[in-house]
Amino acid sequence: MSLILSLDTSTTVCSVALHRDGAVLACFELFTEKSSSGMLTTLIRNVVHDSGHQLSDLDAVAVAKGPGSYTGLRIGVSTAKGLCFALDKPLLAINTLEAMAWQLSGFYPASYALCPLLDARRMEVYCAVYDADVLEIRPTSAQIIDDQSFADLLTQQPVVFFGNGAAKCRAVLAHQPNAVFPEQVIHPSARTVGQLAAIAYQESRFENVADFEPYYLKDFVGTKPKKLVV
């Protein structure tokens, strides 16, 4: 038996879910144009309270570790670690892209590959490729998208491109007959983070709470503020 609180703040979507043995008990999500991570603690309180539990009832806390937004990941991981320290509970970390692919598991034929994409600014995306059973075909990476992206894979099988970075692929790969683009944008969600976390809990794949860091994938590059012209 496992009661797991899961958090996903990889993008502007702020998502919190509570699962018992992989079955969702409650899930609250905020979809905004700007980061909604500031509402994270409120969502945590609501999810736990509305499902009739207390934080002390938890067996573990899970978090989407990235890749994704630097700020969002920092907030999510810091909150998860704080809960683990305060409650003396183990920490589980789930790859954001894997959890996204899990959302589409079973929706496409076995011959299809699943490629979740998260916007990494300009023409770059964070991506990975999974088979229909969400087994990794290509590991998580940061890629610049052009008309040759995924060309070798697209000659072999249909590939479903989804996530908030899929529009970049659609712009240059829509002519490829094996490129599939769902009409609905698939966002990261704590709902599938919790399902994968239940498996990780059974396998005792716990993180070192003190040392754990988000999976940023690439170094942060800040922007200099523009000088004020008077």
Question: What can you see in these coordinates?
Answer:
This protein is α/β, with parallel strands linked by helices. It folds into two domains: 3-95 and 188-202, ATPase, nucleotide binding domain (Nucleotidyltransferase, domain 5, 2-Layer Sandwich); 105-180, 2-Layer Sandwich (Nucleotidyltransferase, domain 5), CATH 3.30.420. The protein is built from six helices and ten strands; from the N terminus they run βββαβαβαβββαβαβα. Strand 9, helix 5 (166-173) and strand 10 (179-180) form a beta-alpha-beta unit. It is globular.
**Low-confidence segments, ≥5 residues, pLDDT <50?**
none
Distance between the termini: 64 Å
* Major sheet: arrangement of strands: 3-2-1-4-5
The number of distinct structural domains comes to: 2
Shape: globular
The CATH topology of the largest domain, please? Answer: Nucleotidyltransferase, domain 5
Q: How large is the count of helical segments?
A: 6
Which CATH architecture of the largest domain would you pick?
A: 2-Layer Sandwich
CATH superfamily of the largest domain: ATPase, nucleotide binding domain
> Which H/E pattern describes the elements?
EEEHEHEHEEEHEHEH
CATH top-level class of the largest domain: Alpha Beta
The counted number of beta strands is 10
Strand content: 25-35%
Helix content: 25-40%
Rg over alpha carbons: 18 Å
Mean pLDDT: 93
Can you summarize the main beta sheet?
Answer: 5 strands, mixed
Pfam families: TsaD
GO cellular component, one term: cytosol
Organism: Larkinella knui
Keywords: Transferase
